[in-house]
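User: I'll paste a sequence; please echo it back and then give the predicted structure.

Assistant: Echoing your sequence first, then the prediction.
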Amino acid sequence: MTSIQFAPKWSRAARLSLALATLAAPVCTLAQSTPKYTIADLGPVGPSWSQGQPFVVSGNGLVSGETVLANPNNLAQWVSHGVVWEGSSTKIINIPGLGGPNNIAFGVNLRGQAVGQADTETPDPNGEDFCGSAALGLTHSGNTCEPFLWQNGVTFALPRLRNSAGKEGSNGAALQINDFGMVAGMAENGEVDSTCPGVAVSPQTIEFKPVIWMKPFPWSQVRLQELATVDGDPDGIAFAINDLGQAVGASGNCGPFNAIEQNNLTPLHAVLWRNGNAVDLGNLGGDGKFAGIYATGLNGEGQVVGTSDTAGDASFHGFLWQQGHITDLGTLPGDAYSSAVSISNDGLVLGVSVSPSFSPRAALWRNGTATDLNTLVPQNTALYLESACSINDKGEIIGFAALKSNPSESHAYLAKPVANSGDGD
């Protein structure tokens, strides 16, 4: 029930500018009031220009994410470490990883299985930067970037697709895992991609497809399923998967590496995959060539959330799709842009709302009404909540925030609903 969105980069204005440069539905009956929350600071995840952040909170409170630290071998460089937070405990899962300097834990489930992407010790045969380490200013190995499953301290590389000659693609990323061990993500297939912009713009040259890995543990039982794209799009990504095995994501063309979304996709279509079929979810009037059109979250009730360019490509807004209809969720008052990231089973939508000057604030939508999450937490909290990234069935929310006393320092947070504050818990 979650997704990946608005990882902090460089200055706050720069990271939102980068996103802009690259990039009558029935409503469920919900509780009538919005709950209040307490805030737990999960600790710093890096300086404000880094991409460190939490991504997913599982039903039992495990949190997957990434923290960016100085490279112990060269303090002038930075490395990313995948982490799993369990209460006040932080597990670093990058060591030994797959042998390279960087990895990210994008997803985690109730069983403690984490998935993500990791640098390896194998040189990339096409000189690609699939993990984006070079683009993000991290220590760059020049090696392949592989999808992984982590469990009980052991990291397994997941397979990639093969081309017509039987050659396996070099790179991929696992983005979310459901509680039954099904994993959504993307994998290269070894075929040259004619839509890539060229080495002067990006080193990406190979097609990557949306995929689901099934039964990823034990290792001997891994099966890989390629998912269809829309309108013949050569590339695609499955961002999220629910416990029914339905997945959401996007298809489109190969493009420059997007440091916000951390991939090389120009997303032209938001897609829902169910019963083996790809469903184009439509858009809010844009063509996908501004900030993109993509779905990043879904719940068990068939509701999907995501982001779409608006008419004339003047802006991008979060959307809710249900029963064949797409609805513009709008923004917080005074803001110009928004993105819907995650949705709970009772229809609470999480994401970010962004001012015309590119200042983000965590937002939630209930019954179509947007609320600044900062107004629902104690005002003496040390954090200013910039994005809400994931919600579990307990109503717990995770995201990233700026430290009020030092806004250049980014922290992960966990927001827990206060009992009897409006959610009926």
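The first helix runs from residue 12 to 22. The helical segments are 12-22.
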